[in-house]
Amino acid sequence: MGEHSADAAREAHALRLGVDLGMTLIDTAEMYADGGAEKVVAQAVSGIRDKVFIVSKVLPQNASRTGVRAACERSLKRLKTDRIDLYLLHWRGGHPLAETVAAFETLKAAGKIRYWGVSNFDTDDMRELDGSACAANQVLYHPASRGIEFDLLPWCVRHGVPIMAYSPLGHHVRKTLASPALQSVARRHGATAAQVAIAWGMRSGNVISIPKAADAAHVRENAGAAALTLTDDDLATIDATHRPPSRKVALDLL
């Protein structure tokens, strides 16, 4: 979102519709469209800021003690708000993690952010944050990419760190939605394969799903996933095609 000014009004309307349908968490980042996505979010939440939970991210090259503060101020300006609800390190870079965390804590104390977290962190990275105030870890997770289930997801559950699943419809959306398993489960429920994939990601209650939707039809479809409860038979059908991991694998990225 935010790459073309001609699309901004439609994109903002889609986000606003999502809020009206109860999807009140909006995820963005300074990287997306070089800040353009944050400007679309600002347009979408105008007049309803207190109803939404805004997540944004700082690029790793900006994650020094002073860089985090400056990046956050730029994001606040683009978002036209006085605080970011959850501020994430987009992925790990060259700046010391302790320095980034210290900068996050300074922003939190100043009321610029309410919580901070990370993105694309594997289990060893999370262990470095053990005992800290990390509020979430945003990673790639969908039926065809289940590696986090081996150790990262269990670690986060044990330590009370929610997972935010980005790209819950997969690397290649059409390929994911063509999955015979997802289509079979969708037919049982009178749903769509996309709704099944989103509901599958949220099945445990420990995962927040953040599918992209830039038009009203997709927003309504995504919202319908919240009402879908998958049965044990449904999950077994999906497991038979998209098998859970039996060993540690490298964190999948997009």
Distance between the termini: 17 Å
Which value, in Å, is the CA radius of gyration?
A: 18 Å
Mean pLDDT comes to: 96
By DSSP, the count of extended strands is: 7
Counting DSSP H or I runs of 4 or more residues, the number of helices is 11
Secondary-structure class: alpha/beta
Helix-strand sequence: HEHEHEHEHEHEHHHEHH
Uncertain segments are: none
CATH superfamily of the domain at 5-135: NADP-dependent oxidoreductase domain
CATH architecture of the domain at 5-135: Alpha-Beta Barrel
Largest sheet: 7 strands, parallel
Give a description of the structure.
- The chain is an alpha/beta fold and 254 residues long.
- It has a domain at 5-135: TIM Barrel, CATH 3.20.20.
- The chain is built from 11 helices and 7 strands.
- It has helices spanning 8-20, 36-44, 65-79, 97-109, 123-128, 152-158, 173-177, 180-189, 193-201, 216-224, 232-241; strands at residues 25-27, 53-58, 84-89, 113-119, 137-140, 163-166, 207-210.
- It starts with 7 loop residues before the first helix and ends in a 13-residue tail after the last helix.
